[in-house]
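Dear colleagues,

As part of the handover before I leave the project, I'm documenting each prediction I ran so the next person doesn't have to rerun anything. This entry is a single chain, and its sequence is reproduced below.
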Amino acid sequence: MVKFRTENDNGFKRLVGDLMRWDGETRSTTDPIYKPSYCLPFVKNRRFVGRATILETLEKKLFSQKCEAVALVGLGSIGKTQVALQFAYLVKANKQGYSIFWVASLSEASFEKAYAELAQELGVNKSKEDEDVKDLVRRHLHSEKAGKWLLIVDNADDMEVVMGSNEKRGIYRYLPESESGRVVFTTRSREVAVAVAGSHLIDLREMSQEEATVFMEISLARKELLQDKATTVELLRELTYLPLAIAQAVAYLNQNQISLRKYLGLLRGTEQSKVSREFHDRTRYEGSQNAVATTWLVSFAQIQRSDKAAASILGLVSCIEPKAIPRSILPEVGPEEVMEYAIGTLRGYAFLSERGDEEMRRSSEHELAKAYLDDRRIKEAIEIFEHVVAVRKRTLADEDHSRLASEHELASAYLDGEIVKEAIQLLEHVVAVEENVFGEGDPNRLMSLELLTDAYTRLESGSRPD
């Protein structure tokens, strides 16, 4: 099996070269009528290793054999989402005429949320109240104006959610079909895989020992631990070469100064005392359930001892859908600094990850600034908003929704602080950008126009000069 360790390996370079060549062959000679969009839930995984053959097969099926849909099928914790994410970033880098969209399909609710976000990104708006936004997105992607696109439907595990039943429609009816589009499904269910992709299936199995060792080496902070080669092999075998189990184990080792042998002992002790019975789950390999569960239990026991607030948050998130959890629904565990520390603990143990560390920190600061406004601490709020806006100006495009939202909030804070001219200057920019991004009836655009009108009125009346 062909593998690559880093982006400098020949296999990786060959795959990139093939993608660029096919991109040149398929690129239209006319000016595009669309601008590529990218809706990806996670940043690129810099620790991704191996899976070269899988990535090459995906590329071949979709862009050489021109299959419109391919299903990546494998048992739980095997790394399907990470493979799909790596492929998405390869396409983004090397087939620049393609838009890339990602929708979670754990449930009807997660799919609906993803399509609502996709509609906003694409500028697809309802013209009638009774229109279904999911159908509008499907029709848009089916049309020529959508251009070329890759759609990843992640976690399509439930046959009833995907294909529907006598009582309800499935999400499959809302998926677009287009000669210009390609769809990748990730699923634990072979039944779902066959239903959505026919014979175009790609089986993903556990990592090889070599891939697992490289993954651990890249992820581990204390590389010297791997000098104990016999224990390394023994630990990886205990973790059944599953990426998720390895990631959890490495997170614990990075947080706690213990040896591989000591951690292996903790795993085996936990398995004997708490997970002595094998879980019955046909979506995972036999033995793999304990590998994942025991790594979680060892880490959770440590968190319970060291950070009660983090344990409280973990207790909630373990009971809800694991992806795209809004920060706003997390339990109140204390002041802001306690919450930040608790989230940091969970991230350190790899129980939580965020959609781009830096951007999520900006979001946290954004929320803190709004709390200051509510408390009439206007000066502090303005300072934070100015910082957030400055960072987003450097890192995000003018039309990015997060940047526009922060600029709107900063302008509002300026008005609260009687800094009217600066508010007008910022709002004029926001309104001009939103005119090209949102439809006429979009509530974001209407709110900005209303705020700008209010700012003009204040300036003309001179009632609140800056």
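Confidence is low (pLDDT under 50) at residues 27-32, 273-290, 356-366. The two ends are 68 Å apart (CA to CA).

All the best with the project,
I.
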